Amino acid sequence: MNLVSPIDFEHELNTEQWGVVRDGDGPCLVLAGAGSGKTRTITYRVAYLLSKGVIPSRILLLTFTNKAAKQMLERVESLLGFHPQGLWSGTFHSIANRLLRHYAPKIGFTQNFTILDQEDSRSLIKSCIKEMQLDTSARRFPSPSSVQDLISYSRNANRPIREVVEKRLHNFYDLIPVLERLADVYAMKKHEADVMDFDDLLLHLRDLLLNHPETAQHLSHQFQYILVDEYQDTNIVQADIVRLLAQVHRNVLIVGDDAQSIYSFRAAEIKNILRFPELFPGTRTFRLTTNYRSSPEILHVANASITHNVHQFEKHLQAHCPSFEKPRLAPALSAAKEADYIVSQVRDHHRRGEPLREMAVLFRAAFHSQALEFELIKRNIPYEYRGGMKFFERAHIKDVVSFLRLVSNPKDTASWMRVLEMLPGVGATTAQKIIMQVQGIGKLEEICERTFVIDRRAQSGWNLFVGALRHILSGNQLPSDMIRATVAHFYEDYAQGEYPDFRDRLDDLEQFAVFAEGYKETQIFLDEIALTETFQANEQRGDQDRMVLSTIHQAKGLEWNTVFLIHLAQDKFPHPRALEEEEGLEEERRLFYVATTRARRRLYYTYPMMGNGESTLFQQPSLFLEEIPSQFLEASRLPPSLSTGANWQNEDPVIVLDDLGERPSSPPRKSKGSFLRSVEEL
């Protein structure tokens, strides 16, 4: 007997979605293209199973966020008219926790084990380092955060510590034996304390299923139907769990899009979805290709781009939305002019009635947004930065600025404190003692020559600082040179030990130095940074209409009416480091695809034609732009001489553009001085 009143599934779903809902028994691979209604399909599939009399507790729905699980359950409840009590729904980690609360004694833990959060985990690693009596002051040692990231990636990617260090932390190659031992001690301490970190929840569940066949058989029998959302984002451990839980009934329906697999840096494995049919013989493959988000013109570009990937399931998105305008390519002379162009378009659309919140600027790397952030501040356009801090709020920027402030004002105790606490062996107490000794000495050159009473453990750190300071002071004192000297002689080594994402932070700092090339006096440069920070701190919060700045990774799953994809130059996107990875180019192209499919109506591709700083070298457009047939883009494109791509060669007259990608109507105006025109603008 049916549990619910009849729902007209066929009427409420499109043909592709209805096929999945109706015929989703057995192993099923649902390739859900961007904007194709995958959440709706999963929700209706669950409702359909319940309408056919499946007991709720025999359905397992796995998602990647608690928010997604909650929304799906609410939609199911709305369809059914009641809450499906007992249905298993949640993230991989939450489901693992529920199961381990019952079965933990089988793997040597009590049912009352404690879950460590990120901070708890770092504290335990720090305790292990201390117990092992590792000398972290004699030379730079990876921070607890970096060690935590190393161990986590190693376990989720199923790779040994040695391999991960060689690939991600090669600066610590000589510490591999120590780091391997540290990982073992960390695991032992967790077991002794009856605690698990987030990774343990998944790994211990997999071990339970592998090493206790009777338990695996029982759970696999219980879960008659398994549905998995965003399967392209699973790692090896999660895929193993799905396989082991589905071994009895084999009613496993995975939903995902290989074209949106962009998280390999988190150990996500695209091969999980690509090889699913091999793992589950007899798999039925469904394709959801009707896109309800973007215009046909935007989808033409997305489809054309992703066809260049070799390792994929072929699919071709079809637009449900009406035709609009072609995506526009707008090369600009420089990053600053690129920012000018974007702001002018944003203001124009806003004047025409489009809310700022319906406009987004997306970029491959965080430092690509710097010039645009300056321009938005100058024009007083409110924005929110997704997935991180605004440029001048970032810790590594503040760290290096502290060095410059010391050079400008050796009496700046706040900057002394920030700099000293970065030194190996120097804590807050030692830093205060040093500050008391250097106070009253007006010149840094004299400080470098003096001998101070410093704790033995802190002496090597102080020597490192003095050496870096001498290099900084020996230069010509230009802000850009001081930034680069600080990074080269101190901060690069510090960042490698302190931050798992140190490469991105060093990219930020180089971009910071490029910006500083426009300044000759350190004090003026520091004043403008201070004013910018004040401006950002005083911005209104709450419900104010704001445009969005976001990395592409943070934008996945979101959408806007108007999207600007910026810095599409060769050596910027695709990212050079990504190309060092196996199949890295294809993942970069998937990133481009994800960014493109965030736009509903308008899409702009922009890039600076000139290199960073004072370089006069032209930059080539991104490979991904050259792969798009020219008829899919609006006509304002680069003259053929500036592009190497055959798609850009044609016999049409060359369209002469100014440095904003527009036909020039008057001589360009040159603006001099700071990016903040006056204090009054604040």
TrEMBL record:
Transmembrane segments: none annotated. Pfam families: UvrD-helicase, UvrD_C. GO terms for biological process: recombinational repair. The keyword Electron transport does not apply. The keyword Repressor does not apply. SUPFAM superfamilies: P-loop containing nucleoside triphosphate hydrolases. Residues 11-295 form the UvrD-like helicase ATP-binding domain. GO terms for molecular function: 3'-5' DNA helicase activity; ATP binding; ATP hydrolysis activity; DNA binding. InterPro entries: DExx_box_DNA_helicase_dom_sf, DNA_helicase_UvrD-like_C, DNA_helicase_UvrD/REP, P-loop_NTPase, UvrD-like_ATP-bd. Residues 657-682 are annotated as: Disordered. ATP binds at residues 32-39. GO terms for cellular component: cytosol. Residues 296-557 form the UvrD-like helicase C-terminal domain. Belongs to the helicase family. UvrD subfamily. This is DNA 3'-5' helicase. It comes from Candidatus Uhrbacteria bacterium GW2011_GWE2_46_68.
